[in-house]
């Protein structure tokens, strides 16, 4: 009888041990890959098992080989991280938070010198970063650039997902080189950065000075930026750019970001008004989604609101035009200035906007403040050197004294504007080939003067802003996100 009881107790004990081990290590598998664990109470002399974890993430990454996982338990890690090697096809090296625990990579104890990131990848491929808070990197020094994540050189199959990046701030003046980035990607090698994805992340509460929150520049060929939120930032939300600024030695033929998708994101309150002590009280230059010398990018199903400007297809380069990019099915509303901006900055550069399409977007009551010349920038704004672009099937709702479409100069050719639906609560206004004079208020006169909008329609309505309509538009787009 005693032997039977003992055997029963032994079986129960074995069952409990197995259950405990399974619960403690959710990553156990029969594969040949390894899991290395990191915890704030670990030690780098440990083995990196779940029961004897490392203390620093770098110690685990040094051990990790292709196919391995580095799993970080909850807590704050006051560390800079650098990936020492790449994964392999089908065997990425994965850096991830432990399920249902918050691992925070915290830069508050780091003294920033030069350009410095909390997570750095140089010439690495098949890497996944999943589920971290990346935050609190500050600089008040001249010519520094604090960054959340930095990716440079070449590389491919890099995934950043489910990360929350915030409080990356440079507090120097503009004259001292105020600059910073939440995510900085610069293709600086002969072979491009390919198959980069940034998904389901948030970027917020940053001070990036003259730079952008998410920068894709130089030799970058193939990227996805999807289901992210970028908000409460000092300057540009995301930029797809030529590399003549950040990578001046790059080959002209390949030194620009291209072949990407920016879709299903939410951008709001990306504005210089958050730091008037830096920019002055009347600066509204931030653009939430900005293609600047980039090419062949699809910008689709994004919601942009209450930023300085909504979407920009502009070039600040004399080498790279913004080209072959489509802006489709986006909702842009209540921005301080223009909803969608095309062309060069006036009297600044010459490359312009070429062969781009703005199709089936909804713009609502932007232009809440005047432009730099005392003008209304327009729900859609065209400045210098716009050539062979298409603006069709958009729904544009103008508030009182708003301008529906504003073309600033006589430069540019072969643009097509048609099949748009215009709505205005007062006399509609268009401006053609003028910065600030002689708005056109008659629809037929607009058609004759511009030679555009033959099949477009105009409706005068008593009230443009309708909360229910706006909710429906947002709900419709968000249901696809």
Automatic annotation (TrEMBL):
Keywords: Secreted, Signal. Pfam families: DUF1565 (PF07602). Residues 1-24 form the signal peptide. It is found in: Secreted. GO terms for cellular component: extracellular region. SMART domains: PbH1. The keyword Secreted applies. GO terms for molecular function: carbon-oxygen lyase activity, acting on polysaccharides. This is Right handed beta helix region. Residues 41-81 form the DUF1565 domain. InterPro entries: DUF1565 (IPR011459), PbH1 (IPR006626), Pectin_lyas_fold (IPR012334), Pectin_lyase_fold/virulence (IPR011050), Polysaccharide_Lyase_9 (IPR052052). The keyword Signal applies. It comes from Pedobacter soli. Its main location: secreted.
